[in-house]
Amino acid sequence: MRADLFVHCVARPNVKARSIVFYYRAGTAHYYSFDGAHGKGWYTAIVPGVARHGQGLAYYAQALETRGVAATNGKGPPNILSAPGGPRGYHAPSAGGARGPLRVPV
């Protein structure tokens, strides 16, 4: 069974973001994107379990302001999240080494 990957993005204090967009790809050349839902300082997105296959997940996030991109994290080259144990699931580290949401500062 594949589990969804929860993503939490946050703008760094010096970035005045109106929104954050999370981009990902797994085994394809095409990036999929989510406009993060905003709540309590974090923008959240979910990568569906069915979309996570192969050996890793390439991702980046962009903080957007009125005039365009204010900041980016990992667009060139993208960040890579490995999939221990193959395609069954990604294990995002969180505080204390426990599995939790993927945290992406922008």
Supply the key terms.
single chain, 106 residues, mainly beta, 5-stranded antiparallel β-sheet
Could you say how many structural domains there are in total?
Answer: 1
How would the global form be characterised?
globular
Helix proportion: under 10%
Uncertain spans: 85-98
Query: Can you write the helix and strand succession as a string?
Result: EEEEEEEEE
**Portion in beta strands:** over 45%
Mean pLDDT across all amino acids? 76
Annotation, overall tally of beta strands: 9
CATH architecture: Sandwich
CATH topology: Immunoglobulin-like
Quaternary status: single chain
Tally of separate helices: 0
**Terminal-residue CA separation:** 31 Å
**What would you call the structural class?**
mainly beta
Radius of gyration in whole Å, from Cα? 14 Å
User: Describe the biggest sheet?
Assistant: 5 strands, antiparallel
Provide the CATH top-level class: Mainly Beta
Walk me through the structure.
This protein is mainly β and 106 residues long. It has a single domain, classed as Immunoglobulin-like. The chain contains no helices and 9 strands. The N and C termini lie far apart (31 Å). Mean pLDDT is 76; it is low at 85-98.
Compact overview of the structure:
With 106 residues, the protein is an all-beta fold. The chain contains no helices and nine strands.
